[in-house]
Amino acid sequence: MIERAEPDGRSVLLAAKRYRSAETSDFRRSSQYTEGRRTRRSRDSRALQKKSTYGRALSAGLWAGAEFSALSELYERGAPVPYPVQVDNTEVLMEFIGEGHVAAPRLASVRGTPSETAELWQQVVELMRVFARAGYAHGDLSPYNLLVQNGRVMVIDVPQIVDIVSNPRGIELLERDCRNVSSWFQRHGVDCDPEALAGELIADAFGR
């Protein structure tokens, strides 16, 4: 978390997300998310495949860049994501979601009335529609990367965003997102059908 002074004298809190490079740890992400992505230089492609020191550092930077790009596009489309401020090599600076210095709770820890929970479900469905209409699935959606701030759902952790059409596993990952969030809401009394939701989202993605 970083506190930054604005020109008008106000201070704002920003969240800094740093992707670990080869110097600190092994950086691993499943290739299921990156199928279809390309690097411009053949040297970079070879380094990523060999998982060399350079390749691991490059991988960290690519994931940071992917998250910043995804946040930028989704924010422009009206998705409830943190406002992206800047990306610097392996670090992404973005809007801090919370009150004061306290981060907003994850959906997994939220307990509300039946009507409040049903409203949260509708918000999750709508944000998934925004993704799908742009041709994307989150790829790793769960109650742990959905935050709830003052009754509003915000989605975080989007570097693995998947193109539903071009990624061979795009539809499979979209369906998994639907099951993950639906199962949590079902356990909390919301009547939802993950298969029906997936079908609607796929129609949205291919009908854009």
Structure, explained:
This protein is an alpha+beta fold and 208 residues long. Helix content is 40%, strand content 18%. A hairpin with a 2-residue loop joins β5 and β6. It is globular, with a radius of gyration of 18 Å. It starts with a strand and ends with a helix.
Helical content stands at 40-55%
Over all CA atoms, what is the radius of gyration?
Answer: 18 Å
The proportion of strand residues reads: 15-25%
Main beta sheet: strand number and arrangement? 4 strands, antiparallel
H-E order: EEHHEEEEHEEEEHH
Mean pLDDT value: 83
Structural class: alpha+beta
Strand order of the largest sheet: 1-2-4-3
Number of helices: 5
The span between the termini is 37 Å
What's the count of strands? 10
Shape: globular
Low-confidence stretches: 22-28, 37-50, 52-58
Summarize the entry for a quick read.
By secondary structure, this protein is α+β, with helices and mostly antiparallel strands. The protein is built from five helices and ten strands. It has helices at 42-50, 53-76, 114-133, 170-187, 194-206, and strands at residues 2-5, 11-18, 84-88, 91-95, 98-99, 102-103, 136-137, 146-149, 152-155, 162-163.
